[in-house]
Structure to design on (511 residues):
């Protein structure tokens, strides 16, 4: 459950409206009823959802006070903390009224400040003006006839034209086409051709010209909801509102009082946060190459001629030139349009005498914004799948322990085995090696020889001698090491003629 203040701000000592919406673990709406309490446990007001888990509640927050919304089922949710300073925007759209009421109020520290007001629908402005806030709320009435059907947005801008508040409402002027369909005959036989007379009139009951298509379905076989998505609800509502709207066409067919406002105050809610004073990265107006020219003593070179030779693709070339300033810096701009994704450039610098000796060029490295690897899920059902899955797993665990309590329950049997490596020539059984040196280990030591790797990575590995012949061999903890590569025992290459095979193998102990 979430509470959202109208206009995006929640100001102390100002009575204002909060929209709220409650959903279950599957992301579907759920009816709620409860009360709002302060930090002392005193009940401030009660609330209940109007339609699809959404509703509105009025509250006047006190300074330095925290509020909790407690539902009848015992669950509690935090109400947003009120702000000491800010401007407030309220828009009232009574169903039976012919006007829209706009109320602008502010905290005492903003009295006398000027704000700009704009009302728009689908990007087109229908009302604009200037508002100066005072100790009394500013009120304005605008005729509903001034706006077309759809979502209208009312936005407040500060003196620097930065948006600070916004409120969206849905206006329905009942200006859809009036369609009337009359069949040529009352009863048809199977496979008969059906002729239908279609008449279309506008809201002024005048004939309308258009192209129409008809889809016929069997409602006994295909589920059809009365308030499911249609052309009007999509173009005027769903396409401009965040998230999934349950039964969108309901809001165009005599909705309950406050139901449309509840939708606009939740899924149509907007808040503007201006938390930065200076952007981290400069606005990139065009492609630029910047750098600096220095001499042998790392001092900037003034009035050095800089030439850039560029090549795009296989044949297209271009040349740009400029000069450095007193600080030795230069900038290349006004590049031609690049028709390929690969561009090669060469920069050359000459001093005042036209020589390149003792000249150094440093090109500034461009720093780009970091790309977040966080995955954004557009579907709310996917976001809540982890909660649903956790509940399912807990249920499975509970059933598991209940089954264990029954007689005759077979305990869990764990079967273990060793993985057979395809193509392995290990003389021990599969998985019987005392130690493994994998390819990743060799890649991490690219400049080391195999013997150095064994010396560093195999415990007890060292060079030794045979006691009878003083033959140089390799041992591990006193045991002779035998090297076998692709099935060939390369250790036999070190077997002296004076030593018999039997005598040599006496020193061998498999490891």
């Amino acid at each position: 459950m979430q509470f959202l203040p109208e206009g995006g701000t929640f100001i102390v000592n100002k009575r204002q409206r909060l929209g709220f919406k409650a959903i279950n673990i599957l992301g579907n709406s759920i009816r709620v009823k409860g009360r709002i309490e302060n930090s002392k446990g005193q009940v401030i007001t009660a609330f209940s959802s109007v339609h699809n888990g959404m509703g509105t509640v009025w509250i006047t927050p006190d300074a330095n006070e925290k509020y909790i919304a407690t539902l009848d089922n015992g669950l509690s949710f935090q109400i947003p903390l009120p702000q000491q300073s800010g401007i407030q925007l309220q828009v009232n759209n009574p169903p039976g009224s012919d006007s829209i009421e706009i109320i602008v109020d502010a905290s005492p520290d903003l009295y006398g400040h000027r704000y700009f007001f704009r009302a728009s629908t689908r990007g087109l402005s229908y009302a604009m003006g200037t508002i100066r806030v005072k100790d009394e709320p500013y009120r304005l009435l605008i005729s509903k006839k001034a706006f077309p059907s759809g979502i209208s947005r009312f936005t407040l801008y500060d003196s620097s034209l930065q948006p600070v508040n916004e409120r969206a409402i849905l206006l329905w002027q009942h200006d859809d086409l009036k369609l009337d369909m009359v069949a040529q005959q009352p009863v048809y036989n199977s496979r008969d051709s059906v002729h239908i007379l279609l008449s279309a009139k506008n809201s002024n009951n005048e004939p309308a010209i258009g192209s129409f298509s008809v889809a016929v379905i069997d409602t006994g076989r295909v589920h059809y909801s009365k308030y499911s998505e249609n052309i009007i609800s999509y173009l005027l509502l769903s396409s401009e509102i965040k998230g999934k709207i349950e039964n969108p066409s309901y809001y165009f067919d005599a909705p309950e009082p406050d139901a449309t406002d509840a939708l606009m105050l939740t899924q149509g809610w907007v808040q503007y946060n201006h938390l930065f004073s200076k952007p981290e990265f400069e606005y990139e107006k065009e492609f630029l190459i910047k750098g600096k020219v220095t001499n042998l003593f790392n001092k900037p070179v003034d009035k050095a001629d800089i030439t850039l030779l560029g090549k795009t693709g296989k044949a297209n070339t271009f040349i740009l030139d400029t000069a450095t300033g007193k600080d030795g810096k230069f900038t290349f701009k006004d590049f031609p349009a690049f028709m390929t994704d690969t561009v090669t450039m060469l920069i050359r610098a000459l001093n005042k005498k036209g020589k390149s000796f003792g000249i150094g060029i440093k090109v500034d490295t461009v720093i780009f914004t970091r790309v977040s690897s966080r995955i954004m899920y557009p579907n709310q059902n996917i976001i809540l799948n982890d909660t649903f899955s956790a509940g399912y797993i807990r249920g499975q665990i509970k059933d598991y322990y209940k089954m264990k309590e029954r007689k005759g329950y077979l305990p869990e049997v764990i079967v273990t085995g060793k993985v057979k490596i395809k193509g392995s020539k290990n003389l021990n059984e599969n998985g019987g090696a005392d130690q493994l040196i994998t390819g990743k280990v060799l890649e991490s030591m690219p400049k080391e020889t195999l013997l150095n790797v064994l010396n560093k990575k195999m415990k007890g590995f060292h060079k030794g001698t045979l006691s009878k012949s003083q033959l140089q061999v390799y041992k591990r903890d006193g045991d002779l090491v035998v090297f076998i590569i692709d099935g060939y025992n390369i250790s036999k290459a070190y077997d002296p003629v004076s030593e018999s095979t039997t005598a040599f193998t006496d020193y061998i102990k498999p490891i």
